[in-house]
Specification:
Blueprint lengths: L1 H10 L7 H29 L7 H18 L5 H22 L15 H5 L16 H5 L12 H9 L6 H8 L12 E3 L9 E3 L1 H7 L3
Antiparallel strand pairs: 1-2
Length: 213
């Protein structure tokens, strides 16, 4: 018990003013939480790629049900159908994050590092679908974990290597257009299990803007 309390004291970053030391402590905490999640999820990943129930997912489920109901009644609302395809991409994002042992909470923090940077060869790498397993670039080049959810290894490598040459905020909005009311067209479409690259479709708009990835 004393050892646990000592570890918590060593990792308490809230009063640390040195940015390097603060980030070091934050990453240690992230590593510890990552190990706990992977231990808990080992059997879950083997059984099913389903995402755990969350408030956000419940909202998506309710919206999806309403959209399908309007479609089945023969009076689909155009805004329902448009937003449904966006919701599917966001659902895919959450599902793939779960498969690699992450959660959406805190994923948008600017200074969060990918767990593959922190661990190298992940402890439970065999439980991750082949399309999501980390590449050499993911293990060796520092990057934000949100880039790890694409089920296309080459695209992940291109995005990681090109960091600093493109606007990450614009890219994120284009991918997760569900939260961008000004985005009329989807950049990506998902038609099945999100960890399978064959179930993703890139649109003409995506190719024009982000074809280099």
């Amino acid at each position: 018990m004393a050892s646990t309390e000592d570890d918590r004291a060593k990792d308490d970053w809230r009063l640390v003013t040195n940015p390097v030391e603060r980030r070091r402590r934050q990453n240690r905490l992230n590593q510890r939480e990552y190990r706990k999640r992977r231990l808990h999820q080992t059997q879950v990943v083997r059984r099913s790629p389903d995402v755990p129930e969350t408030d956000e997912l419940q909202i998506l489920e309710n919206f999806t049900a309403a959209a399908y109901q309007s479609y089945s009644l023969g009076c689909p609302h155009s805004d329902h159908l448009l937003s449904l395809t966006k919701a599917n991409v966001y659902r895919a994002f959450l599902s793939n994050l779960t498969l690699i042992g992450l959660v959406a909470e805190g994923i948008c923090e600017a200074d969060v590092l990918s767990p593959f940077n922190l661990f190298g060869a992940a402890q439970f790498i065999t439980n991750i679908p082949p399309s999501l397993r980390p590449t050499t670039s993911q293990r060796s080049l520092l990057h934000h974990p949100w880039l790890d959810f694409f089920p296309h290894p080459r695209a992940r490598d291109n995005l990681i290597r090109a960091q600093g040459t493109y606007n990450k905020h614009d890219f994120c909005l284009d991918i997760l257009g569900f939260w961008n009311p000004d985005a009329l067209d989807n950049m990506l479409l998902v038609w099945g299990e999100p960890h399978d690259p064959a179930n993703w479709e890139v649109t003409e708009g995506f190719i024009k803007k982000w074809g280099w990835s």
